[in-house]
Write a structure and sequence with these properties.
With 163 residues, the protein is an alpha+beta fold. It has 2 domains: 51 residues, Thrombin, subunit H (Beta Barrel); 96 residues, Up-down Bundle (Methane Monooxygenase Hydroxylase, Chain G, domain 1), CATH 1.20.58. It contains 5 helices and 5 strands. The chain has a 5-stranded antiparallel sheet with strand order 4-3-2-1-5. The longest helix is centred in the last third of the chain and has 22 residues. The protein is globular. The mean pLDDT is 91.
Length: 163
């Protein structure tokens, strides 16, 4: 993350593990006698605190631009890439998309997992969970960036995945 980059209350962010959240404020916590400032971030399901001095782009980023969401939509419309038959390689691919934490990487994985699901008749538990969670993350970010509700974004995504 660039030096001095800060978020303000009300800013929307994307955490690599927790997904979409909104900065609700800055809290100072005294832990073992040391005061540390944290962003308080509210997601759909929970609230978490992110130490301000430990932030980097690998973990936390601002929501995408409309152009980045449009690129994800274009990616969803492209032909799927076949997933490896090797479970470990598929899991590495899921982890790579989580680390990249971009709408395009997530859209590509969602598209390819959906194709895998159609081809094999189902996904294993880890793939099913990744598909569901990443799909929800993309829907939430799409809705925020485009100014639409999540049901509309989910419907649009489902339509793209059904093509």
């Amino acid at each position: 993350m660039e030096e001095g980059h800060t978020y303000s209350e009300g800013d929307w962010i994307v955490h690599s593990q927790h997904g979409i959240g909104q900065v609700k404020g800055v809290d100072v916590k005294d832990i073992s006698g040391e005061k540390t400032s944290y962003y308080r971030i509210k997601t759909t399901d929970s609230t978490f605190w992110m130490p301000i001095d430990q932030m980097n782009d690998d973990v936390l980023r601002s929501v995408s631009t409309p152009e980045e969401i449009q690129q994800a939509i274009i990616t969803l419309q492209k032909p799927a890439e076949e997933m490896s038959s090797n479970y470990k390689i598929r899991q590495q691919r899921i982890q790579r998309a989580l680390v990249l934490n971009t709408p395009e990487a997530i859209a590509q994985l969602i598209r390819d997992l959906r194709a895998q699901q159609r081809k094999t008749g189902g996904l294993n538990t880890a793939e099913r969970n990744a598909f569901r969670n990443l799909k929800q993350r993309l829907v939430e970010e799409w809705a925020i960036v485009k100014g639409i509700n999540t049901d509309t974004a989910a419907s649009k995504l489902d339509n793209l995945l059904s093509l």
